[in-house]
Design a protein that fits this description.
single chain; 119 residues; alpha/beta; Cobalt-precorrin-4 Transmethylase, domain 1; six-stranded parallel beta sheet; GTPase
Length: 119
Amino acid sequence: MTPVTLVLGSSGIQREKTIANLVDPACPTVVLLEGFPDGKAVLENAGNSSTLKIIRVAAGCMCCTGNLVLKVTLNRILRDPPKQIFLSVADASHIEKLHHFLTSPPYDKLLFLTKDCRT
């Protein structure tokens, strides 16, 4: 099972900085960033690494408006699962629904949630 860490906070740059500090460069990792950078993208250069894949999706509540995008993106990621996934979340108002989504079938057999990281 692949560990997933939700990184929460309103500032995209702060979420990216937090993720950059948590990523193990030797570990195959996918970072799914909600929204586009609100300044210089901290992970921009790190995305060129052979062990780090950066995916950006448009901002929007991942359990509501972004549900289909999240499903499709996760399914693509899990075809060749990394050792770690970081999910950057701008709007944590429905975080319990997002937790439920990530721990329900089919993801309950593929992913496990680590403790959320708040920026």
